[in-house]
Amino acid sequence: MKNWFMLTLVGQDQKGIVAQVTAALYQAGCNLGEASMLRLGGNFSMMLMVNTQAESAALEQLLQPITQTLGLHLHLDTIEGQLHQHQEADVRISVHGADRSGIVAQVTEALAAAGLNIVDLASDVAGSEGEPIYIMQIEGVATQGIDALQAALEPLKQAQEDEDIQVHIAQIETLMM
Amino acid sequence: MSILDILKYPDPRLKNPSEPVTAFDEPLQTLIADLEETMRAGPGGVGIAAPQVGECVRVVMVDVSSKPKIKHHGCLILVNPEITAWDGYAVAREGCMSVPDYTGNVIRAVNISLKAQNAVGDTQEYDMEGYEARAVQHEMDHLDGLLFLDRLVSRRHDLFRRKTYQKKAQ
User: Residue B156 and residue A122: Cβ atoms within 8 Å?
Assistant: First the structure.
């Protein structure tokens, strides 16, 4: 099929979003690729590779009854459907601390400068409203080695107490058999 | 010796349980030699099971000696292997020549005791740990028609256990 799209969808979380959207795509002859879908702060979000003969406008029209009924925002981008080229993460960084602005920016700026290519990042705000904590898990490829990442994070680890965040780096060793 | 073709999932032959080896004959020796060459030609090269090359017999080979700083038994040829004891568990990432372009997290026992015959039929016993134990469990799964895909745990909320629970004194 000729076109690959990245379908991005977001809306109030409710039952049946995935089923309704994917059923409509399937019935219209679309084939799905890789996807990431999850609930974030009461919203349901979807990033979904869709392969189809249809053009963008036709896809939007096809899904319009569902997005309207469920109150979802939909966005389509034409993409290259690069399958079978997974990058294997070789490092995992866990971060947690009292929630404050700047944790993600500070950590990822330091890591990017030391050669990290992120392949997966998930973060949550947990704790309570009064005392929120921030928890982030990153997996990526350490293009300049894990020691470079470790060194880049040292200054952050030694930040002042009120800015204290815990950062742990671990190698992901994949046993290939 | 020759490098054999590796069956790729979803080839249904990978789901077949394998039969015990009863004859430690010339064809078995040829199979073992071919398995070793095929294993070493693979991307990881630390293990292979006979059913991966379409031979439904209970033969696996594991050699994790290329991994630095771990305990191992060198190149192991395990015929009719049986795990007799398990201890501890850990999550780690595995890949498989029969499942290209995918890796996933799998829970395995950390320590195992194993009974198996060697290439000429002598029974051997092993105690092993870590990578070697993981590799043996992965390969032995093939003998029962199981792939690591059958044992995947979540990539996102996986339970990577820290090696130590006590913070080092600074």
Answer: yes
Asked if A176 and B92 come within 8 Å (Cβ–Cβ), the reply is: no
Cβ pair B156:A120 closer than 8 A: yes
Question: Could you tell me the CA-to-CA distances from B115 to A61, B127, B136, B143 in Å, in that order?
Answer: 63, 9, 12, 15
Q: Is A76:A84 a contact under the CB 8 Å cutoff? A: no
Residues of B with CB under 8 A from a CB of A: 42-48, 92-97, 100-103, 131, 134-135, 138-139, 155-156, 160, 162
Pull the structure tokens for residue B7.
Answer: 């069956």
Q: Which residues of B are catalytic?
A: 139
| CATH fold label, A91-171 | Alpha-Beta Plaits (3.30.70)
For the structural domain made of A3-79, what CATH number should be given? 3.30.70.260
Q: Which residues pair with A123 in a beta bridge?
A: A136
CA distance A100 to A116: 23
The chain A residue lying nearest B139, using CA atoms, is A177
A-chain residues within 8 Å CB-CB of B155?
A: 120
- Band of residue A48 on the pLDDT scale cut at 50, 70, 90: very high
Domain-wise residue ranges, chain B: 12-153
- Residue B158: the pLDDT is 55
The per-residue pLDDT for B168 is 47
Return d(Cα B100, Cα A143) in angstroms, integer. Answer: 22
Name the residue ranges covered by the structural domains of chain A: 3-79, 91-171
Among chain A residues, the shortest Cα distance to B148 is held by A177
**3.60.120.10, 3.90.45.10, 2.60.40.2340, 3.40.640.10: which CATH number matches B12-153?**
3.90.45.10
Residue A137 near chain B (CB below 8 Å): yes
For residue range B121-156, list pLDDT tens digits in order: 999 999 999 999 999 999 999 999 999 999 999 876
Q: Compute the distance between CA of residue B130 and CA of residue B34 in angstroms, rounded to an integer.
A: 26
* pLDDT tens, position by position, A130-172: 999 999 999 999 999 999 999 999 988 777 666 788 999 999 9
